[in-house]
Write a structure and sequence with these properties.
Strand order of the largest sheet of chain A: 1-19-20-21-15-16
Structural class of chain B: alpha+beta
Shape of chain A: flat
Radius of gyration of chain A: 24 Å
CATH superfamily of the largest domain in chain A: Dynein light chain 2a, cytoplasmic
Distance between the termini of chain B: 99 Å
Number of helices of chain B: 15
Shape of chain B: elongated
CATH architecture of the largest domain in chain A: 2-Layer Sandwich
CATH topology of the largest domain in chain A: Beta-Lactamase
Distance between the termini of chain A: 10 Å
Largest interface: A-B, 33 and 37 residues
Oligomer: heterodimer
Structural class of chain A: alpha+beta
Largest sheet of chain B: 5 strands, antiparallel
Largest sheet of chain A: 6 strands, mixed
Radius of gyration of chain B: 38 Å
């Protein structure tokens, strides 16, 4: 057990400055190697209104830094650059393609003295990687666009994608959870889980076009037919972008176009979240977003159909080479709508029963974040429900920063370890790493001593994590 | 088409001398014996029973035409009727009148199986009065009326004994009434109306079987199925009164299967005069000389044969397209096991909803048996004094298809079948597991093993991971060990396995072994301490592992930890000879010197 105590929680000023994006650009140094052609290197630059020469200068600087630092360690190029005024994060997702992100303090002139520890390398490094993953989910690799239509197509795609995506990037609410990029799983009893399995299998059988299915409830994952890494980024898209954009039809008024469809005699609440909003509309378009997922030896392009009934959402993925028709969508709606509605109410009922059985004492009184690298399972009682714009936390940013620091410490070693930190604000912060799992607990016990805190965490593990093997 | 005949005559019929001008043939339903009486008995009476051993032959004086001849049970007393008002017993016996009832009777029917006699009374004959015989007493049961299709005016006898039969179906006595179609009443076809005749209480009309045709009919009961033979079309129909008909009114039944004739039967020509190569002669089925007796007997007096009618289940599989209904039908039959298993195998070539239905039907019966078995065990354990009657051990019928049957006959070969997508294989296995869970039946380990084997074969580790995450594959030591063995191909299996061992809470030794094998010596030590097993573990095992790591500080820590334990347990830090730690003590001294050893504390 490594102990650091007491520790000064940084940023004790009255006012917190939240970072936002100063610039974000993508370049490839091999595209304009000659002097006077530097502009060709730049594939995307945000903000676009920046004067051309400044763009060239900034890209050039990054290129120089990367080249220079490479001489020290050719296998691990620079990841971030700290200067007195700001930081930059570098990421080379594909050979010679570089993504650079420069966060900035919002609304403050960059001349003000920078609070060095306010921005965590791991968090922002993760954000840059996520930007790329999200681009790749919807567009495939940069290389793919190059093959299909050269630089021109790639710049078009980058422009189209990042113009909107960067607007939804809320750097100020990024934290440890972005580092994990985890998936929240919906707790479910075995029988209901098997029913969902059965449902998925039957739908995939009768609509044989469907290649993969994912099933979510309450924005939490229950089943993924996709491989873990693809699911991770799709989950991110669904929970932070698609779901928050769609209000629940149950909450909509009687005359709302979102009211439940009546199919045959059976009332069901199924509706498409992607593709046609109203099947009855003769003008309806049957176009769905396309996504790219990995296969054994490359990538495949798929239509993404997201269909929801009450709190249950099913994602059906179909090869993009197939054209989806009205007939298919009607068939899917007729088949899936009633079953999904029924399943949703089953899950809801089971969930309520389980809650009642487990009782209120099982409700977490602790603030914690749990993450398992093996299955990407994450659980947080610190974060409020995610909304389209922000991810609210119930603890002070300083404490979140300590969590980030502990995580960095864990990342440095392979061994299991435990770190207990006493923050200046009377909080205790405990980090535990056991095998592939990490647990962070925040305790607000003013007069507790180290032993008591240790006991408290043990108790938490015994009640919340009695299912898993956690070394203490 | 021969695969479509679902009824057949038994292979070994009772053979007797066929009826002729000199040979009269009688059948006794109670003993199921055929009497061939030659020349009024003077040239011999041959009695053949259901099995070869019960054959009896004797002679008696010809005292006139025999009207009826029977043995008492056990062939003790022979009774011969030659006139309408007298019965002769060849041995001199005296008879005693036990009880008498005075009723005007048109005709009677007797059911030997249940010892119930049914009397037709009133002018129209449709008021039936049953009596039950039991241990020497005769008790009157409540009478009931058969609804006639038309009430004749003036009243006359309208119910024939040929149209009434009694038989036990699913353990309950039923009176079957063959209701012919009538042009005056608006019925277009004949039907069989069943009246349930309980031991106590009123007799009630319970089922109506729609024959959808007219003509001459005869009834049999085979394996609780009502078989209706139709002479003019030379076909038979079967009805299962337990099969629910969704499209019909309550308790109205349509035939289970389309009408088919009984499987063609060939009479082997036998006797000394016959050349062996001579082919057997086809037997005329549905002949007008056939007599049909309850429950399942068909006699051809003119040919000298008594057959038992049998149901052949395999042809029903292709005749009944609705697999759910087929399963309902098969699960109630006697020799159904192999046919059901073949239906299961066949359904794994079909679609999932059908597979699910078949599994659910199967497991419903399986669960009922398990429950009965369990409540029997509980009753036995709580002692025979409890409860009024001693509980009978539940009979395991062929319809109870357990997991090992499914594994052996259906699933293991299915998972190996060529040309089936792995997606479908897994879906079918999961469907079976879902069905077992739905009926709260504990799933056997070998099924999980089959699922894992299939997933691993197709590299579907993430799927496996998700199943384990939701505890679809229940925890067990063998499963945890299987997971450990997968670690080299799928590293997360290690964590999954440890979690499972932890949840089992009886596998602490295994957890220690796993951790030590990973050189996590301190982890193992901390774990065994946290579960309170520190005092009993083998120090040598830990010291071996610590020394193997080559980490001297680790060895030191572990060594000292055990010295402290020894001190606490035995008041001395030294190791007992039985612990075989001598070499480690030597090693410790070599590394850290004699003085580093913990000294016995002085009290």
């Amino acid at each position: 057990m490594l102990m650091i105590s007491p520790r000064m929680a940084s940023g004790m000023q009255e006012k917190q400055y939240t970072p936002s994006l100063l610039s974000f650009f993508i370049y490839n140094p091999t595209f304009g190697p000659r002097e006077g052609e530097e502009e060709k290197k730049i594939l995307f630059y945000h903000p676009s209104e920046v004067e051309k020469n400044e763009k060239i200068r900034n890209v050039g600087l990054c290129e120089a830094i990367v080249q220079f630092t490479r001489t020290f360690c050719p296998t691990k190029p620079a990841k971030s650059l700290h200067t007195q005024k700001n930081r930059q994060f570098f990421f080379e997702p594909e050979d010679n393609f570089w993504i650079v992100m420069k966060p900035n303090k919002d609304g403050k002139p960059p001349t003000i003295e920078y609070q060095e520890e306010e921005i965590l390398d791991t968090v922002y490094g993760a954000v840059v990687r996520q930007c790329y993953s999200m681009y790749k989910l919807f567009n495939g690799t940069f290389g793919r666009a190059m093959e299909a239509g050269g630089v021109e197509l790639l710049t078009q795609k980058l422009e189209k994608f990042f113009y909107r995506y960067l607007q939804t990037l809320h750097l100020q609410s990024c934290d440890l959870l972005d580092v994990f990029g985890g998936i929240s799983f919906f707790p479910l009893d075995k029988m209901t889980y098997l029913k969902i399995q059965s449902f998925v299998n039957k739908v995939e059988e009768s609509l044989s076009l469907i290649k993969y299915t994912a099933f979510l409830y309450n924005d939490q994952l229950i089943w993924s037919g996709l491989e873990q890494d693809d699911m991770r980024i799709l989950y991110k898209y669904l929970t932070t972008s698609l779901f928050p954009r769609h209000s629940e039809p149950e909450l909509a008024g009687r005359d709302s176009p979102l009211r439940p469809e009546v199919a045959g005699n059976l009332l069901h609440y199924g509706r498409f979240l992607t593709g046609p909003t109203n099947l009855k509309d003769p003008e309806a378009k049957f176009r769905f977003p396309k996504i790219f997922v990995s296969t054994g030896d490359g990538y495949e392009e798929l239509h993404l159909i997201v269909y929801k009934a009450m709190s249950a959402a099913a994602c059906f993925m179909i090869s993009a080479s197939v054209e989806l028709t009205r007939e298919f969508c009607e068939q899917l709606d007729g088949l899936v709508g009633p079953q999904l509605t029924l399943l949703a109410s089953d899950i809801c009922e089971q969930f309520t029963i389980n809650r009642r059985i487990s009782g209120p004492e099982k409700e977490p009184q602790f603030k914690f974040i749990y993450f398992n690298h093996m299955n990407l399972a994450e659980k947080s009682t610190i974060h409020m429900r995610k909304t389209a714009s922000v991810c609210l936390t119930s603890v002070h940013p300083d404490l979140m920063k300590i969590l980030g620091d502990i995580n960095c410490d864990f990342a440095r070693v392979d061994e299991d370890e435990e770190i207990i930190v006493k923050a200046m604000t009377d909080y205790w912060v405990v980090g535990k790493k056991s095998d592939q799992r990490e647990l962070y607990v925040i305790l607000n016990q003013k007069n507790a001593n180290l032993i008591e805190v240790n006991e408290e965490v043990k108790r938490l593990c015994a009640t919340q994590f009695n299912n898993i093997f956690f070394l203490d | 088409m021969s695969e479509e005949h679902y009824l057949e005559l038994c292979e070994n019929p009772v053979q007797f001398e066929h009826a002729s001008s000199v040979n009269n043939v009688f059948f006794d339903e109670a003993n199921k014996q055929v009497f061939a009486v030659r020349s009024g008995g003077a040239t011999g009476v041959v009695v053949k029973g259901p099995d070869d051993k019960s054959s009896v032959a004797f002679r008696m004086d010809d005292k006139g035409e025999v009207k009826c001849i029977k043995f008492s049970i056990g062939n003790k007393i022979l009774a011969v009727q030659r006139t309408s008002k007298s019965v002769v017993f060849p041995d001199k016996r005296s008879l005693k009148l036990l009880k008498s009832q005075s009723i005007n009777v048109n005709w009677y029917q007797y059911c030997p199986e249940t010892a119930v006699i049914l009397l037709s009374t009133t002018v129209q004959g449709n008021i039936l009065q049953p009596f039950a015989f039991r241990s020497g007493t005769m008790s009157k049961m409540s009478k009931f009326e058969i609804e006639l299709p038309v009430v004749p005016k003036p009243a006359k006898l309208s119910l024939s004994e040929r149209d009434i039969a009694m038989a036990t179906i699913y353990g309950q006595l039923h009176v079957m009434y063959l209701k012919h179609h009538s042009r005056t009443a608006n019925s277009t076809s004949a039907e069989v109306v069943l009246y349930h005749l309980p031991r106590e209480g009123a007799c009630k009309k319970s089922h109506v079987l729609k024959l959808n045709t007219t003509g001459k009919f005869a009834l049999n009961i085979v394996d609780n199925l009502v078989v209706v033979h139709h002479q003019s079309s030379q076909t038979s129909l079967i009805f299962d009164i337990k099969l629910k008909e969704p499209d019909c009114a309550v308790n109205t039944h349509q035939p289970v299967l389309p009408a088919r004739s009984i499987h063609p039967y060939r009479i082997p020509l036998s006797g000394p005069a016959v050349v062996p190569s001579q082919p057997p002669v086809p037997c005329q089925l549905y002949s007008s000389s056939w007599s049909v007796f309850q429950p399942d007997i068909i006699i051809s007096a003119s040919e000298g044969y008594l057959w038992y009618l049998q149901v052949k289940l395999p042809p029903t599989v292709n005749l009944l397209q609705d697999k759910g209904k087929l399963m309902d039908f098969l699960l109630r039959r006697r020799d159904c096991k192999m046919v059901i298993l073949s239906v299961c195998s066949q359904s794994t070539r079909g679609v999932l909803p059908v597979v699910a239905t078949v599994f659910d039907k199967l497991n419903q019966v399986y669960k009922e048996y398990l429950e009965a078995e369990q409540s029997y065990t509980v009753a036995m354990e709580s002692g025979p004094s409890r409860g009024s009657a001693a509980q009978k051990r539940p009979v395991r019928t062929q319809a109870v298809i357990d997991q090992s049957d499914m594994y052996t006959h259906v699933l293991s070969s299915f998972t190996e079948r060529k040309g089936v997508s792995h997606k479908f294989i897994i879906a079918v296995l999961m469907e079976y597991i879902r069905s077992l869970n739905q009926f709260q039946i504990t799933v056997q380990h070998y099924l999980y093993e089959l699922v894992i084997k299939t997933l691993v074969q197709h590299n579907l580790f993430y799927m496996l991971h998700q199943f384990l995450q939701y505890h679809v594959l229940s925890d067990s030591k063998p499963l945890a060990c299987l997971l450990l063995s997968l670690e080299s191909t799928y590293p997360p299996a290690h964590q999954l396995s440890l979690d499972m061992l932890k949840r089992l809470s009886t596998a602490n030794d295994e957890i220690v072994e796993v951790l030590l094998s990973k050189q996590q010596v301190l982890g193992a030590l901390r774990f065994i301490r946290s579960v309170g097993g520190h005092d009993n573990v083998s120090a040598r095992k830990f010291l071996d592992a610590a020394r193997q790591t080559g980490d001297q500080m680790l060895f030191y820590t572990v060594f000292r930890s055990f010295q402290q334990r020894n001190q606490r347990l035995r008041g001395s830090p030294g190791f007992n000879p039985g612990e075989h730690c001598e070499e480690h003590v030597v090693h410790f001294k070599q590394l850290f010197g004699e003085q580093a050893l913990m000294k016995p504390s002085t009290v």
